[in-house]
From TrEMBL:
Gene this protein is translated from: glsA
InterPro entries to which the protein is assigned, alphabetical: Beta-lactam/transpept-like (IPR012338), Glutaminase (IPR015868)
Domain of life: Bacteria
Record family assignment: Belongs to the glutaminase family.
GO molecular function annotation: glutaminase activity
Binding site for substrate: S66, N118, E163, N170, Y194, Y246, V264
This enzyme's EC code(s): 3.5.1.2
Reaction equation(s) it catalyzes: L-glutamine + H2O = L-glutamate + NH4(+)
Name of protein: Glutaminase
The protein's assembly and partners: Homotetramer.
Length: 310
C-alpha cells in the first residue's frame, strides 16, 4: 500500500494550482457547459479502505461527459461480452482528437478505433441493453448507483438537451456507423442515450468512489459485491492508460502514469490499484480538451507520492 496523502496536503496542492484556473478555456461547443465557473476547483481521494479526503468545492456537481465512456463500456461488456463489443469497436489508440471523423472515412467498412473516442463510445452506447432510450439510460444510472451506493446521482437534463440540440458532429459519426452496420436501430435514439450518459451529474467525492471501484478490481468498497467482473475492470483501466486523455494519453502516461479518464466538463477520474480513486474538477481545458488544473494536480501528486504504475 502506498503512503496516504493527507487532506492538508491536498488542500495546499489545490491552492498552489489555483493560479492556473484561468489558463485554457471552458468548453462552449455544448452551450450549457459554458456556464461553468473556471474557478470552481475540487479534488477528492477515495482510498480502498473507505477513507475519503477532499479539498475545494466538494459539493459542486459537474457532468461526466467522456468519463462516462469507461462506465458505459463496462456495462456494454457485461451486457454483450468481450467478443461482441470488440467485434465492432477496436482496441487501438487513435492519436486523433476525440470527435474526429477522419478514421471512419479512411477505414472500409468504418470501425471505430477504440471505445474512448466519440465514434467508439457512440457504438458502445448503442450496445447497452434496453427496449427504449430511457430504459438504457436508467440501466446505466442504476449501474452507477450500485458502484457508488448513492441513489441521488441523476442526469442533468439541461446539459443533456443542450448537447442533443447541438450534437451535429456526433450525429454525423452515428450516420457513418449506421451505414456500415456498426450501430443498429435509430441514430436519434442512440444520440439520446449518449447525450444523457454524458450528462450524468456527479461531484468529486462520488467520482473518486467510482475510480476506487475500478481500482478495487470492480468490487464495491462497502458491500464487497463484484459490480464489474475483474477482467472487464482491467480492460477499462487499460483503455484509460492508452486512450483516456484523448491524444494527450502518451504524455499523460509519462508525466503521471495512472490510468485516468477526462471529460470536457473539466472532470478527471484516476484509478490506482492498491491505492484508490482520485477525482479532480477544474473546468478550464487545454487545447486537447483536458482539465488544466486536473492534469497539473495529478502530476504533482504522482511525482510527490511516486504513484506512477510504470
Ligand atoms: N471529450 C468529451 O468529454 C466529449 C463528450 C461530449 N459529450 C461529446 O460527445 O462531445
Amino acid at each position: 500500500m502506498k503512503e496516504k496523502i493527507t487532506s492538508r496536503v491536498l488542500e495546499s496542492c489545490l491552492e498552489n494550482l489555483r493560479q492556473y484556473a484561468l489558463d485554457g478555456k471552458v468548453a462552449d461547443y455544448i452551450p450549457a457547459l459554458s456556464k461553468q465557473n473556471p474557478e470552481d476547483l475540487a479534488v477528492s481521494i477515495y482510498y480502498l479502505d473507505g477513507d475519503c479526503i477532499h479539498a475545494g468545492k466538494v459539493e459542486k456537481c459537474f457532468t461526466l461527459q467522456s468519463i462516462s465512456k469507461v462506465i458505459a463500456l463496462a456495462l456494454a461488456l457485461i451486457d454483450n461480452g468481450e467478443e461482441f463489443v470488440f467485434g465492432k469497436v477496436g482496441m487501438e489508440p487513435s492519436g486523433d482528437p476525440f470527435h474526429s471523423i477522419y478514421r471512419l472515412e479512411q477505414n472500409e467498412p468504418s470501425r471505430p478505433l477504440n471505445p474512448m473516442i466519440n465514434a467508439g463510445a457512440l457504438a458502445v452506447s448503442n450496445m447497452i441493453k434496453g427496449s427504449t432510450p430511457d430504459e438504457r439510460v436508467g440501466r446505466l444510472l442504476s449501474f452507477i448507483h450500485e458502484m457508488t451506493g448513492d441513489q441521488s446521482i441523476e442526469v442533468n437534463q439541461e446539459v443533456a438537451l443542450s448537447e442533443f440540440k447541438s450534437a451535429f458532429l456526433n450525429r454525423s459519426l452515428l450516420y457513418y456507423l449506421k451505414q456500415d452496420g456498426v450501430i443498429i436501430g435509430s441514430v436519434e435514439e442512440t444520440l439520446d442515450v449518449y447525450t444523457k450518459q454524458c450528462s450524468i451529474d456527479v461531484n468529486v467525492q462520488q467520482l473518486s468512489k467510482i475510480g476506487a471501484l475500478f481500482a478495487n478490481e470492480g468490487k464495491n468498497l462497502q458491500s464487497g459485491r463484484q459490480i464489474i467482473p475483474k477482467h472487464f475492470a482491467r480492460i477499462c483501466k487499460t483503455f484509460m492508460v492508452t486512450c483516456g486523455m484523448y491524444d494527450a494519453s502518451g504524455s499523460f502516461a509519462i508525466k503521471v502514469g495512472i490510468p485516468a479518464k477526462s471529460g470536457v466538463s473539466g472532470g478527471v477520474v484516476a484509478s490506482l490499484n492498491s491505492f484508490g480513486g482520485i477525482a479532480v474538477y477544474g473546468p478550464s481545458l487545454d487545447e486537447k480538451g483536458n482539465s488544466v488544473v486536473g492534469l497539473k494536480l495529478l502530476e504533482v501528486l504522482s511525482n510527490r507520492y511516486d504513484l506512477s504504475i510504470f
